[in-house]
Design goal:
Blueprint lengths: L2 H8 L35 E4 L2 E8 L2 E8 L10 E7 L6 H7 L3 H7 L2 E5 L2 E3 L2 E3 L14 H15 L2 E11 L1 H12 L6 E5 L5 H5 L8 E7 L16 H11 L4 E6 L10 E7 L7 E6 L17 H9 L5
Parallel strand pairs: 4-5, 4-8, 8-9, 9-10, 10-13
Antiparallel strand pairs: 1-2, 2-3, 3-5, 6-7, 11-12, 12-13
């Protein structure tokens, strides 16, 4: 893909009403359907488009793209934290930039926001968030993320102990997969309406204590609160991470009914864990498969809750 076509693609941003994508899994044989690209050099790997950088690199013989939002306060004098924000199945980096929007927080808190683009799986964008060798996808997405970390570390003074990941649905599953596959490079992760497969639970591969946050609705009809996508309930996933982190305390508290509809939810906390880590679950009563925001009628601001949690931890 030439940079002229990348620019045309970038100029075609569209506003969206929902960015998670209604699909969470794929059912057909995998392929990474991106055209072959010329080698991407350090000098021409990104182009400026307003406040964004549109970037590309070669991975597995194809061109993969990602967006960078750098806060206006960034001056290169201090190391910067990084947040990866992954879109859902069938969605895009453009949509996730707007739907799970961290740009205001990036300006307020001074962190670098990176929004990668998933590859195609039989026509739909996706993340390969499973450890199963027989996964339907052949995309090496953890390798792609590692390459992005390397690339942005050449451009910015990245704080290695402050690299975080969050995502929506399949993107949330991708964040959890990164905690398993490259835990030495990812400090803490958050999943919004995400999941873990039974295969990943049995073959996670995490090597360090890792803080994990879940935000999930009890009325999610895409990724079930009670059973995910077959890998177990959201609370059972939290217990998996609490066990890994050797957490010895747990507690619950009611969430504020911000929107006044008579229901709110429960915050589950697992604490007293190894290396100061924590595991938390925001169980949102009657919320569906959405990214929660108060301006859209929800009881919490998803982006604020995610960043407040993640930034407590340094690797």
């Amino acid at each position: 893909m030439k940079y002229q076509s990348l620019l045309i693609f970038a100029l075609s941003l569209t506003a969206v009403a929902c960015g998670g994508g209604s699909k969470a899994t794929a059912t057909a044989t995998a392929s990474i359907e991106s055209p072959a690209a010329a080698p991407i050099t350090k000098e021409n790997s990104c182009i400026e488009l307003g406040a964004l950088l549109e970037c590309a690199l070669e991975h597995q013989g194809v061109e993969r793209t990602f967006k960078i939002y750098a806060p206006s306060s960034l001056d290169g004098t201090t190391a910067v934290k990084v947040l990866f924000n992954f879109h859902g199945y069938g969605s895009s980096a453009d949509e996730q930039l707007l739907y799970g929007d961290f740009r205001d927080l990036s300006e307020q808190e001074g962190f670098l926001l990176v929004v990668p683009q998933g590859s195609l799986l039989d026509g739909d964008t996706h993340w390969n968030s499973d450890s199963d060798a027989e996964s339907k996808s052949s995309a090496d997405d953890s390798g792609f993320v590692s390459k992005i970390i390397d690339a942005i570390s050449e451009r910015y003074d990245v704080e290695p102990s402050g690299v975080y990941a969050v995502g929506m649905s399949n993107g949330g599953a991708m964040s959890l997969y990164l905690a398993c596959s490259i835990s030495q490079r990812i400090t803490a992760v958050a999943s919004v309406t995400g999941f873990m497969s039974a295969n990943l639970l049995s073959d996670c591969g995490v090597t360090t204590p890792t803080s994990v946050l879940f935000i999930h609705g009890t009325a999610d009809k895409v990724v079930s609160w009670d059973n995910g996508l077959g890998g177990g309930s959201i609370l059972s996933l939290a217990r998996f991470w609490a066990s890994h982190n050797r957490c010895s305390d747990s507690s619950t508290e009611r969430l504020e009914d911000y929107n006044g509809d008579g229901v709110s939810g429960v915050l589950h906390k697992y604490s007293a864990c190894s290396a100061g880590t924590q595991v938390q679950v925001y169980e949102i009563t009657d919320m569906g498969h959405v990214w929660p925001e108060k301006r859209r009628g929800d009881d919490i601001n998803g982006a604020e809750v995610v960043w407040t949690f993640l930034t407590r931890f340094q690797g």
